[in-house]
Amino acid sequence: MLERPDPADATVPHGLSKTVATALPGLWYCLHLPATLLDLVDVDAWRLKAAQSLRLDHNILLVPIDCFDEDLLGRYLQHHHPVVAICPDELLDEARQRASALGFVLPTTPYSELSDATLSAQWDAMHEHFIPDLPALTGEVSLTRRLDLAALSLPHRRLARQMGWPTAELAAQDDMSVSGVLAQVLNGQTRLAAVARLEREEASHSEADRRYPQTLREEAARLRVPVALGLPGVAPAYARNAYDAELRRRTGHQPAVSPDDTWSVSLHERPDHMVERAAIEFAVTHQAIASSGLGLMLPSVLPNAFVTLAELERHFLTTHSSAAVRRLLTRLNHAAQPLWGKEVTAAIQCASHLTVFSDFPLGLLTMPGDSAPLCARLPVTYRPLDPLTRTVQQQVAAPPSISLSHTIKVLVAECIPASDPVGRISREGWSLARKAAAPQSGKLTIIQAETLTLDALQKSVAEHRPDILVISAHGTMVGNMAALVIGATPHLDLGLTRMPPVVMLSACHVAPRGSGAVAITDLLLREGALAVLGTQVPVEVTRNAILMARFLIYLAEEIAKPGQFATILDVWHHVQTSNAVHDILDGSPSLQAWASSATSSGRSVITEFKIRASGRLRRPHIYEDTERVLGEIADEQGRGDRVRNWFRRPGYVPESLFYVFAGRPDRIYLSSLEQQVEQDGRGR
Fold this sequence. Notes:
The protein is an alpha/beta fold.
């Protein structure tokens, strides 16, 4: 079973509906308008800095003209302020009538009137309508011409207006190199962080002037901002099945930067590869603006990288070896080497977390200078690109952030019969997890349910209405689909009447990427899940159960005593990276036995490690540093050479890094939004 986009109706290879493509000029224009009322007035720098964690998206409604009426949109618009409708010229008369009936504030604007003058007038009109009693921001607003630089330049222009920096010369960014624009952006983010810190510390004007140069240097050294990346490319195996040879020849390599990639009211009439590029750049720019961060386009993934990834994923389907996994990861890094431009490296080095628009697991690559994959360095979340129509629709229809700040209800759906050894071990693991979480039972409730049919799963979810749904199941391939086995039947559509915000798939290879398979993880996002955790490869059931249980226990502890983690993405990243020691010590029976042996202090090796490792493990080198600390303990036992040899032969696999978190886990907070702003305002 394979979704085959019709080239007459959708672009190749990512599948953007040509009807949706006609909206791109208007969608891009909307990104230049205010996202919230805060964009229209002066805001303290510390609040601007804190807002980077709030994801203040533009609220853009993308609808066909036939659906632009009271019957379909009336209830939705009751909770929003309809401001302006933008449409192709041929729809102007009809759109104007419908917008007026729906109470839109500003006149309907056709594509032919989209200009700097219209943009400036609309900013002024919005201020006058919504907050006329407050002083308006000064500074010019103008359209960004270079779409390939927009994810950098547009958020920076908005920040410049808020900070009162000169804005007239920012239009010159369209003629700068990506390195030049990135340097401006990072400088602006550093200045924001420095001013925000001085505001938080309530420094007087004279004290702030005196301390500013030193504060600027300190903030430059520790700068962290959200980063969004666009990484196009489809797996060759998918392209061969979906398109004929002639169409495949038309899908060439996309560079990171393309000076011809400019905004116009007819950009949707360009060749497929340029239209797709504009759509991906729109999604990245939308995300970068929402987080007040920055974004970059990467060159498209080369076919050989997908081929190597597919080989790596297939290797796990058999009895895999540590040495072979290391070789394949090295080959994968070599195949993907062209992705690591100096601008990408510089952006990642100052990233608080990454949002990656791609069907390739960038987090599995190792950045130059690191020894562990990127997902160990910082939290990474994915937004799938195929089909690109869905990506654009989901991006503009950004759901509100939610808070799990009081209690969390977890439903563990046991979809594997207890007679299956995996099902038995899974039940035992979750029973232990419930006992471990018992001290926090007032904050975290774990419910186990027998759901050996799809109907039983649907009824259990409807009955318990969990915040987090854990589906313990086998994963399987059905044609080109990565599905869940519930009882004995594969399923791709769960048909839940109320999709929980978080779905964790405790199942093998439900998010493979090398073959371009349609994955259940992506389909659950389409069904309404806010965040989905899945595995790229088969994982060992006991280790998976421990990893999932640790994640839930850390969630409960954060709710009981908040302050360490802001979102469930932060919790997951901590659990994923701190699991490196378990990956290593579970690598062989010899290492497992050694882990429980006594040290000179009388403590077990694993307990001694946890004491000694504090403050010594660098995330970009998490496995290397973990081996070093374990080696020190082994040396004191007189077993250093033997233990280090076990690290290599038979070795271990960094299994914890083969999980992907898709969707918006960064929007699921563990405190209220008010607490979040206050904590970030104090400099979490």
